[in-house]
Amino acid sequence: MSEKMIHLIITRQKDGEGGSYKEEFKLPYRENMNVISALMEIRRNPVNANGEETTAVSWEASCLEEVCGACSMVINGKPRQSCTALVDQLEQPIRLEPMKTFPVVRDLVVDRSRMFDSLKRVKAWVPIDGTYDLGPGPRMPEAKRQWAYELSKCMTCGVCLEACPNVNDKSEFIGPAALSQVRLFNAHPTGAMHKAERLNTLMDGEGGLSNCGNSQNCVQACPKGIPLTTSIAALNRDTTLQSFKNFFGSDNNF
User: Fold this and answer.
1) Distances (CA, A) of 249 to 24, 168, 192, 252
2) Which of 50, 188, 193, 218 has its CA 20 to 30 A from that of 10?
3) The domain at 5-110 falls in which architecture?
4) What is the pLDDT of residues 45-59, one digit of tens each?
């Protein structure tokens, strides 16, 4: 009986300037293999399906347990994490492609700077004054902490941006990941100091909240099940209230 094989078709690209091409690989099957382990086999023995020696496929990974978000790619037409993509659950041939929302660096490696720049733009962090001990921070109500924890699961994998039809090279839309982080840090007792600034960023210029087309692809694609569309709906309300505050010059809460 012939040995069971895994068939992969990988979209490859030498660098950001060159064109892409497809290369096929066939590997011996092992139980409980995921896409990352298949790519590791190719790295150990870079020989394509025609028996020709080739270069090892470039890809990114770190934690291998769906925490770091580094191993995002398009697998059989869907953006997802390759560490949790089990070979037994995938239709063959398994087609691996880089995410198209971001510039390709090499093969399956992409530059996610667009997403990180958006997080900087909305100040997706809790500001502190210095590195000295500030003492215990203000308490967060348990009900708020529970839904804020769900938003904090974001691992900046970029899958939601890949799934969103409004994030592309013709749009400045910052995408659902950054929007959800605005809601998260505005809910934090200390992060709320910059709430108005974050909301004004979403209302000013190109790429803000108004660019969301409400396709809801993001929440379906998110590997962590983060309620991204709920955050976007909440931000629509918050930005409306902030626009009234701006108009009346009021700092009072509505």
Assistant:
1) 62, 36, 18, 9
2) 218
3) Roll (3.10)
4) 999 999 999 999 999
